[in-house]
């Protein structure tokens, strides 16, 4: 991972990392990334969008008509950020309350993906592994209306906080509860589309996603 002045971690740098494996793991778990860029009119914008990693590239997609796609396709530099919140960290003092988290930031210029249909397969299987082989693939009109852009994962950093509260030493004597409240995302049971045939079972590739 390329280290640059803008990826240098200055605030609590011991929580930072430029390790590719750490960065990849954070990106792979994320469904949504926030894409920041400056519009052609000079205004800042941050757009949430579905992301997927394909090797050492990060993919985003959208309508060919969207301002985000048009600006990024024209070469506007971007910053992409994702964050996972793993817990609320309750300290003995208000000042030291925090969160356990995993975050990643990437910088660079995006280019149209070389193989748009394969990129859409990557997106589909990111949502549900194995889903692509069970659905209708995009037709020429749908492919024409869609753009997939690729960002090389070469300049970026990750930052992670784990563990218990860190209080000032005198505050450990306070009669105040402290600890961590974990936060998790849970996938529930599939809810069938009302227009499905009554006899259709939930396929295994969908059922395997549930956490119950």
Automatic annotation (TrEMBL):
Residues 188-212 are annotated as: Disordered. Residues 190-212 have a biased composition (Basic and acidic residues). InterPro entries: Pyridox_Oxase-rel (IPR024747), Split_barrel_FMN-bd (IPR012349). SUPFAM superfamilies: FMN-binding split barrel. This is Pyridoxamine 5'-phosphate oxidase family protein. It comes from Solirubrobacter deserti.
């Amino acid at each position: 991972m390329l280290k640059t002045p803008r990826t240098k971690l200055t605030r609590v740098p011991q929580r930072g990392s430029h390790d590719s494996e750490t960065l990849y793991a954070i990106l792979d778990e994320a469904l949504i990334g926030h894409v920041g860029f400056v519009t052609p009119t000079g205004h800042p914008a941050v757009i949430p969008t579905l992301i997927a990693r394909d090797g050492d590239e990060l993919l985003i997609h959208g309508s060919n008509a969207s301002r985000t796609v048009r600006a990024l396709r024209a070469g506007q530099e971007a910053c992409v950020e994702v964050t996972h919140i793993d817990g609320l960290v309750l300290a003995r003092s208000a000042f030291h309350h925090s969160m356990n988290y995993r975050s990643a930031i990437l910088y660079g210029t995006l280019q149209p993906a070389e193989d748009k249909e394969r990129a859409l397969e990557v997106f589909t299987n990111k949502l549900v592994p194995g889903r692509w082989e069970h659905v209708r693939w995009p037709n020429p009109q749908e492919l024409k209306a869609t753009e997939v852009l690729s960002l090389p994962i070469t300049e970026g950093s990750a930052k992670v906080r784990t563990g218990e509260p860190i209080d000032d030493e005198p505050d450990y004597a306070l009669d105040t509860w402290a600890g961590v409240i974990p936060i998790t995302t849970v996938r529930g049971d599939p809810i069938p589309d009302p227009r499905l045939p009554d006899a259709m079972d939930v396929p295994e590739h969908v059922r395997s996603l549930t956490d119950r």
